[in-house]
Specification:
- 4 copies of one chain form a homotetramer.
- Chain A is of the alpha+beta class.
- Chain A has 2 domains: 150 residues, Four Helix Bundle (Hemerythrin (Met), subunit A); 236 residues, paralog of FGE (formylglycine-generating enzyme) (Alpha-Beta Complex), CATH 3.90.1580.10.
- Chain A has a 4-stranded mixed sheet.
- In chain A, α1 runs antiparallel to α5, α3 packs parallel to α5 and α8 crosses α9.
- The longest helix of chain A has 30 residues.
- Chain A starts with 27 loop residues before the first helix and ends with a strand.
- Chains in contact: A-B, A-C, B-D, C-D.
- The interface between C and D is large, with 36 and 36 residues.
């Protein structure tokens, strides 16, 4: 009998696209239910213990994600609107507050994993309770546009945490000597299309959100930017290409690295991507499907900005700016998840055109995360959503194999510190003409 | 409906004395079963989440204690004796190794809380499996003295972890804003006997283990020590007495403190015992029964060596040496747990004689933990049990309200760093004549 | 007798403008001598001890600045050109290497202050020796353009270190309880012109260096940028204005701050600019002239990016981008140092126009330090001068009262991490139309 | 010309024994002058820079030692006795206070090296000023016993700092890539006497100071101790013997080490004594005479308690207790410094008897630094001299080649944390019978 078996949990194919891009009033309740059920479905393969532990200060326990997304609806939607509002639990307002100073006290982020109480089952009870109250509220106010807008914001917020739940579980499982698998492993990709370059002329372009009903405040205002002529790589950098950088002593050559990146590399003792390890048979990669042989044709994942920048310099290229990326991607359809999406791991592309933009790996840009011209954060707590993080972070564009499809947008601005690599971050190259 | 209720777990009165001091061969299996069941009983009030989380590097998850004590039997008893030995799980040998270099790799101590797998239920399965195999082995070798000795060592080892399981859960619950209770709160104590002094003459005495079948290696050899005349306080320092030290600016007066203690105090921002907090109604104390009003007559608990030493200096006294303590306590019967033991909190004493020696709070001595003259650590892994910790720790004597009664001994040497206060450590004063 | 007097050193008026903006071949030796003598003049008021100590890892000892600038000439100019080159001291190549991996080993930056040997007098001897050899070389190669270019780079490099020598000495003296003065204190400023707003239209502009013989690589290529319409404040924020922010609880209101800035503030315990302190008579400011009453009309100095950004948000404004700043400043003459320059402290302005651009305080921009489109670092060691620092730093524009005048340029890009405040950094506001 | 020469300072033979063990009233002024001049003589080879820098928090600048020892006389002797007392400089009372809370504020220890002012010459002026005032005071009060006692304490205090000045300079010079020499290098030792064991019987002995006029408070009260029979090694462990431990993988075998020592070793990356380094020709040792080939016959120096303990365990021995050491050494004459004393480096011994007790290297004992029975710290500031350090330190006995001879005493108790190795600490073995 293989006693290791119970350590691996399997879950049925997850649906990852419950939220329509445009939510009509009539559909709000069903959109609400779809997104909320998706979070529970993502947590279903986890044990109580898996859901409770915090593996590093940047990551949060799955249980906390489930509670915090519920807190968002209870605090911002129900509290000001529910007659005779009574919180589910008086302490949850503080326990599940992430970073909203306007709401009041917060449980310290690095201590989220110390909260064994409430347990997973109580948090699921909290979710049911708030879901019932939300449905009741939405039925009584079908025409309240401000309410609708806030609920849609809450759903997109929850979708962000669905992605984080997966990135955080991947990290948690990666630090276990048992390397548990969250789902089935991805099958290997046969080939990858050759990398080609797509050229774009200089001139004034416009970037930033337009038209579509939902957006985050940081995607606005739409505005003009002058771009010099540039070229963009047709696809993401593959594991095989990145392994060649390693073979060429890329991690040992300071000339490829930003000074701060070099120091980071030395301090972390990093000489390969965080989820890679080498054994006698060659490179292995930890995935949500467990520890697997590295797939040479799949995109490289979980690189920091420093690594992406060093690879680009070694490859006689550079990272794109976010304006270059958006301007090139805007005319294209949002491509759907590649075949491997069900196993939360990206596939190679066979497409010779501009591909792998939206649902394989987030793409580091060389753009520091900053306010668009004319940006002003909205008043109140929701004004803390994005604006206060606009320093010392870098914008990632596109989306990844763990991003809910209905959450993707060409103007979407993801952002992380240059050292972050537990997100599904990859590399798309650009170059000057 | 009070939604906070499910956060508080109650458990029936726990039996804390399953292991006879002297284990006859015929009784070994029943002693084994009694101790092993006691561990499970202590864990019964805990949720899966409670059992998994590590609240600080010094503490371990309850689940780890349950696994490690089982590992001890599987590794040291079964592995060399079971025909065709196959481990329950090939990874557990490393995962549940605490600090035995001779056994091989160890999972790093500060990462014990990251092990969500194996889950609590699998660890309980591990326990059942090893218990069955142990019983089978013991039945086949009723006359194997070496085996018997090793099993008794394993049972005392497990009793140590029973105490640690409680101290570690107390710490975990104390850092939750919800202050969960592990058991029922203790009822307040009416009065405490006045503190009196008991005098002892100078001369050569003997200390160290003798006679009794079981002891840890650090209690040997029994040897001669010359003592100057001294006096010992009749009972432990009470909360009321310690509160008077605080009122008298004891925490703000460097002259009372060791220089290193003063630095510790500043670095930690400490101005009262770690589980005390002040609200408008006065002092409260976090206990295994939850947050309670401070009981003035109960012994002060959870003080560091620095605090104990500073209090003693303020009180014109000093801490005893371990030889003074043992020499004074040796003639006394091991007093049983006070009435409050069921709730894992000490009671006041009404006894005018030398009391509260064994089962209320461990008593810091001024003795640095060191080898007795002629001590030599045994060869092999068990030699790592005690000897390698003999530096920069201080000896505590007696026992506490969470120590299993059958684990107490007058020659018992507990030891912790001077800054430790999550153990049930209190203060007994001594003074020169 | 006032025994404190000897602790204060005074020095005669320093000339701060020895290097012409454009260096003709015929003038190279005199320009070389002028810049080199200026460094020695700046160090003249310092004792051996003052010149040796490193007060924090970011700062360097004055003696190190004197040695490193000399090392630049010995390593990059003399070593490849001097026939039979022999280094002054074989160890200096490593000791005085700052961050050039291409040159080889470096003495670790945080340990620069541990180098008591070579002493100040030996470093001055090193300077004389290299100066003689440089003059000899320059005389033999009057028409070597590459040599001339490298020497001019070395002189601008030395001017950068002249400024750093002053910022680092200010920090060193500020941590002494004696608050030594490097020079005479500045006299108070009577008034400051009212702050007005200067408007600029939208459209494509060009920024980046053009024409002028000398520039650093990061100022190139000159390129097009699209600017939205904006307004720029006529002058720098004054101490009085910044004090009003403090009075209005600006440091205690998270809504004004970037999240990372708020954390920085808490970690540092910062609630006023780093060189301010409050006594019973009000605010005092540590200056290179010693501890003085805060001058309300002088510009606020030594603020971090976080503080500048928080102040701007509180004042319903924002920081300018570097393109906005350069585009507005380009048509203006480089204004000369204000009257207070001799005492290394900025004066108030009486000018109603756009003023205080170049020689009072560096002005934080909201622009992250990044490569201009088409930038490529030159090959070899000089390629490490700028490019490898292009991450997680913010651009400051203009110049300060401690910047050598001949070192100023409208396209000049200074850069520091957002937390840096030991530079002479101030605040110029911008706003959207 | 060898330009490295000026980096090496040489000084004439230093006299290291100016203070008679017993100071008669008539001799007090000459004893005072002798000790004070000795401090200045030890500082003479140092440049201003050498005297100012602090190479680690545990070490102090030479200038600070010169100032602090002067402060002792000004604060404790002159301030309460000099009519119309005026301090030399109002800030020095705080700047040169080491750790006396009763005196008031202290400049933080890790910032002693930031005090470039007062400079060395002003500190020497401070010394002259206080010396004049002290001589004047002593002349007016020839029969004041309390004054005499305090002055003698101050002289012994100064002798302690003479030793620290040398240990701290050795550390400072050791971190310079230039490895400056403070004095001439020691010549190699031809041979070392074989190690033999000296046996001592069990029984009650007395230890602690008696008779001799001067002692530190921690050497009292003299008291009885029971010793088991033991043996003491005839001489110190040599470099050759310690190198054999290294060759035998002593640093890589956890079984030899205390658990805390093993962690220390890993954290520090230590695999040889701190001043050793290996080059192609073999081991070299940094000494006050510069970097030299390791002398196999000289005693091993600069080992931590952890290293001393590990070596002893590997050698099937142990460290002595301080009572064993003192009891064995008491009958012996204080042996004088070995021939190498002038170069501040110990020599081998040719003596087959119990040797190298007092003036080669301090000898780690296994005794934690604690109060002798009946010890009570004196009231006031001098009570802070010793008592408050009695935790987590280990006693070293004997004396070293940098200890002033007149400072040696058989009852002398030196003490340092187990990790300290910048003192001249060596190893004497003991074993059970």
């Amino acid at each position: 009998m293989d006693r290791r078996a119970p350590l691996v949990c399997r879950h049925p194919g997850l649906r990852v696209n419950p939220l329509p891009n445009t939510v009509m009033p009539a559909d709000l309740i069903s959109a609400y239910n779809a997104v909320r059920q998706q979070s529970a479905a993502l947590a279903a393969p986890l044990s109580c213990e898996d859901s409770c532990v915090q593996s590093m200060p940047d990551a949060s326990p799955a249980k906390w994600h489930l509670g915090h997304t519920t807190w968002f609806f209870e605090t911002f939607v129900l509290e000001p609107r529910e007659p005779g509002f009574k919180p589910f639990h008086s302490a949850f307002r503080m326990l599940f507050n992430s970073y909203y100073n306007a709401v009041g006290d917060k449980h310290p982020r690095p201590q989220r994993g110390l909260l064994t109480r409430p347990g997973l089952s109580e948090v699921l009870g909290y979710r049911s309770n708030v879901d019932e109250r939300m449905q009741a509220l939405l039925l009584t106010k079908p025409d309240d546009d401000e309410l609708r807008e806030l609920v849609v914001l809450g759903l997109h917020h929850e979708q962000q945490h669905q992605e984080l739940l997966l990135t955080d579980i991947k990290h948690l499982f990666s630090v276990s000597p048992l390397y548990p698998a969250y789902t089935d492993p991805a099958s290997p990709c046969a080939t990858a299309a050759p990398l080609t370059w797509h050229a774009f002329p200089d001139g004034v372009v416009q970037i930033g959100h337009e038209g579509d009903p939902f957006y985050f405040d940081n995607e606005k205002p739409r505005h003009r930017v002058y771009l010099q002529a540039y070229q963009l790589a047709s696809r993401l950098v593959t594991n095989a290409e990145y392994a060649a950088f390693i073979e060429a002593e890329g991690y040992g050559t300071p000339a490829h690295w930003l000074a701060e990146g070099w120091d980071w590399r030395l301090a972390e003792g990093r000489d390969h991507p965080m989820y890679w390890q080498r054994n006698t048979a060659g490179w292995q990669e930890f995935t949500l499907g467990g520890l697997c042989a590295l797939d040479p044709n799949a995109p490289v994942l979980h690189v920091s900005y420093y690594e992406a920048d060093a690879y680009a310099r070694w490859a006689c290229a550079r990272l794109p700016t976010e304006a270059e990326w958006e301007s090139a991607a805007a005319p294209l359809a949002l491509n759907t998840h590649s075949a491997g999406a069900g196993c939360f791991h990206p596939r190679s592309t066979q497409d010779a055109g501009l591909s792998q933009l939206f649902s394989d790996a987030w793409q580091w840009t060389q753009s520091s995360y900053a306010a668009y011209p004319g940006f002003r954060a909205p008043p109140g707590a929701v004004g803390e959503y994005n604006g206060k993080f606009m320093v010392n972070q870098y914008v990632l564009r596109g989306g990844s194999c763990v991003t809910p499809e209905s959450h993707l947008r060409v103007s979407y601005r993801n952002f992380f510190p240059a050292s972050a690599c537990w997100q599904f971050s990859g590399i798309r190259l650009a170059r000057d003409v």
